[in-house]
Amino acid sequence: MEKEASKFQSPLAPAEIAEKSVQKAVEFTAKDQSVILALGEQHYTFSHQVSQALTLKQLAEQQQKTTLFMEYPHNRISTMLLDRGYDAGDAQKLADHIQKNDPHGHIAAKAVIGGNTESLRGGNFHRFESMLPLQAAIHHSMDIVFADAARVYPDDFCMDYGDAATEKIAQDLHARKAPAGECGPDDMLIRNTHMAQSIQNTLAKSGGIGVLATGAAHTLGVEDTANGRHCYQDSLAKRFQEMGLPAVIARLCGHNDLPADYEAPENGQIHLFNKPDPQTLIDDMSDKDIHTCMTKNGLDPAIYDPRNFAESYRADFDTALKKAEKDLGIKSPATAQKTVNHRGESNNKSAKAAKPLSV
Question: Considering the entire predicted model, what is its pTM?
Answer without folding.
Answer: 0.90
